[in-house]
Amino acid sequence: MDFDDTPDEAAYRERVRTVLADRAGDLLHVAPGEPVDARSREADLRATQRVLAEEGLVGVTWPREYGGQGGTLVQQAIVAQELARARVPTLINHIGIGMCGPTVIAHGSDDQRSRYLARLLRADDVWCQLFSEPASGSDLAALRTSAVRDGEDWVVNGQKVWTTLAHVSDFGILLTRTDPERPKHAGLTMFVVDMHAPGVTVRPLRQMSGGADFNEVFFDDVRIPDSERLGEPGEGWRVALTTLMNERVAIGGAGSDIGQSAESLAAHARDRLPHLDPERQALARQAVGRALVAALAARYTGYRRFTTLSQGGVPGPEASAGKLGGTAAARLVADAGVRLLGDDAVLGATADGDETWQKAQAYVPGIAIAGGTDQVLRNILGERVLGLPAEPRTDKTAPFSSSGGRR
Amino acid sequence: MNFDLSDDQRDAAAGAREFFTGSVPLSAARGALDGDGAPAPGRKALADIGFLGITVPESAGGAGGSVLDLAVVAEQGGAVLAGPSLVTAARAAVLLEGAPDLAAQLADGSAAVAVLDGPPTGSAPSVDAADATLFLALDGDTLVAGEGEVVPGRPLDATRGLARVRLTSRRVLAEDAGALWARARRVGAVVMAAEDLGAADRAVLMGVEYARQREAFGRVIGSYQAVKHMLVDAWVGVDQLRSLVWWAAWAADSAPEELPLAAAAAKAYAAEVFERAAETVVQVHGGIGFTWEHDAQLYWRRAKTDRLLLGDAAEHLDAVARLAEAGALG
């Protein structure tokens, strides 16, 4: 047992560090935990990804023939760790790299691959994932956005929502219903959609945390050529599973904290605890200690997953536990951080204008919902890891149109 | 990074599982509770298979193994509520580093050792003291060994062998032993967290097995999310506790500067996780889980006891916060 890089990993990490240092002047940097608004920083974010792509640090695990590096999941995790360490913000095209691109690789035509993938890696095009709808969140297969064949095109009508980065996206992968007479999972088809096409309307949604990272997207008679289909008609669910499996790899966690880090809470406690009333200090220490233990438990569990990757394994359903534990820790860390503010904790920012901990607190509810709600993750773990049966589902085999799904 | 057990440690865990499964029926924990027999497998069996000497140096008749080696064995003992505790062996092995004669007696079982918490003139209830004959205690800043007068109370969990002790003889083993004592207590806390890991894991498994069989309202209760999610939360806790136990045991062996933080984190988390697992297994079983006859209560008793031994969660959470404030996270 050890926590050291293997010689290969150490050499790779050194190379990444060197690149990030040499190209520092060409990269965007932010304070730890500082939110980055994709719209106002769009040009810088695209430029940053382009530089990293030139240096071979984007699409690390993608096959070489599609512009990737043919590297390992461990190398990808090392790049992510080093980007965080160098305070380079999350890549603007992280959804494209982690989810959309792999789906195009797996299910797209050669023509689509050659047109899209290299541009995606360089952030010439930014991509989004158009899955969730107002009436289908966790129950994704209940989606209603329709695509109807018309000659060589499909005509799309409907609405997507919670679409991260749609407001800066050039393309998206779009899951639609093409046959409502079949059971819900069997009547779906996936497309690549041009986000600048006539009939596509994007409206940013402001979150309770104050930022606007995601959007609602409306489709009004949007025409998509049949050549932009990903997979066969009716195979959309299988294609979507490719995307979601890659999402698990992307957010499964390999030792990096979700939300504010344990270190930032420790530093915050060092600054603020002495300023609290003496009788409050003992209580605050309990909250800080509990949060740090949860954060360390999640972090070291991530190290076990990282080891699995390092040994050539792939993340299984137990990776869902990583997000669940990380979310629980993020909640405790944010809460302890806010409590340390004393009287300022009831305000939206401290007297000197710092809103780090209030923001962290307001961001937590979103973490517990995005990328699989806590409840869906518990179902996955209960059913696939503990072997408990699923809840009965009355809608699984009936035609979608007969289960209340007709528009 | 290789944050995983070695093949040897996996083999040792499998061997320990076989040993404990074969030698420790849960009826032993129940019998001890009913005043009808002693905890199993007992000191002699643990000494004979070498578990009491895992961390005792080879020169003193032990195996010269690591705390992590001991922790993977302790996890298996915890799963069946074995007694006496390997916490005692771990802690005593540290304290007896300068007394190889006594360390040899610990390893071969010829001395029935217990480590006392609190003053030697009247200790707090201490693990495995009830049937011990050689006691280790901290008297001021002096490490002493001696015989004692043993006063067991009525047990909450009879497998822990808790008793108050007043030392009646006194051999000085080391002066200025405060730091050694603290390290031994931390290693003991890590091994107790490992035993709690095994027990919590087994408790969750019991709950899952029952939830897959028991039917209510026309289907098995494990299909209901109210039951399923309770079990999943307990399981996630166990999965994460395993990470902290491994880290803390590794720190005891290889990164002593990390041990205070890691041991406190592991012990605090073990208290919480095991208690939740034990309460969950009772709740999932419903009425039958609340009966004296059902084994769920045996895990519940161990959880309610262990959470307060070697420092409660409040003490360890306070330590984690103070260490972090002082820069322990780097």
Short description:
Chain A: Residues 7-122 form the Acyl-CoA dehydrogenase/oxidase N-terminal domain. With 407 residues, chain A is an alpha+beta fold.
Report on this model:
The complex is a heterodimer of chains A (407) and B (330). Chain A is α+β, with helices and mostly antiparallel strands. Chain A has 3 domains: 7-92, Butyryl-Coa Dehydrogenase, subunit A, domain 1 (Orthogonal Bundle); 127-242, Butyryl-CoA Dehydrogenase, subunit A, domain 2; 252-372, Up-down Bundle (Butyryl-CoA Dehydrogenase, subunit A, domain 3), CATH 1.20.140. Chain A contains 11 helices and 8 strands. A 4-stranded mixed sheet of chain A has the order 1-4-5-8. In chain A, a hairpin with an 8-residue loop joins strand 6 and strand 7. In chain A, helix 7 packs parallel to helix 9 (319-339) and helix 9 runs antiparallel to helix 11. Chain A is globular and about 75 Å long. Chain B is of the alpha+beta class and 330 residues long. Chain B has a domain at 180-325: Butyryl-CoA Dehydrogenase, subunit A, domain 3, CATH 1.20.140.10. Helix content of chain B is 55%, strand content 10%. Chain B has 11 helices and 8 strands. Chain B has helices spanning 7-23, 26-33, 42-48, 67-79, 86-95, 100-108, 178-213, 225-254, 259-285, 296-306, 313-325; strands spanning 113-115, 134-139, 142-146, 148-152, 163-167, 171-174, 215-216, 219-220. In chain B, the strands form 3 sheets. In chain B, strands 1-2-3-6 form a 4-stranded mixed sheet, covered by helices on one side. Chain B has a two-stranded antiparallel sheet with strand order 4-5. A two-stranded antiparallel sheet of chain B has the order 7-8. In chain B, a hairpin with a 2-residue loop joins strand 2 (134-139) and strand 3 (142-146). Chain B is globular. The two termini of chain B are 19 Å apart. The model of chain B has no long low-confidence stretch (mean pLDDT 97). Classes of the chains: A alpha+beta (407), B alpha+beta (330).
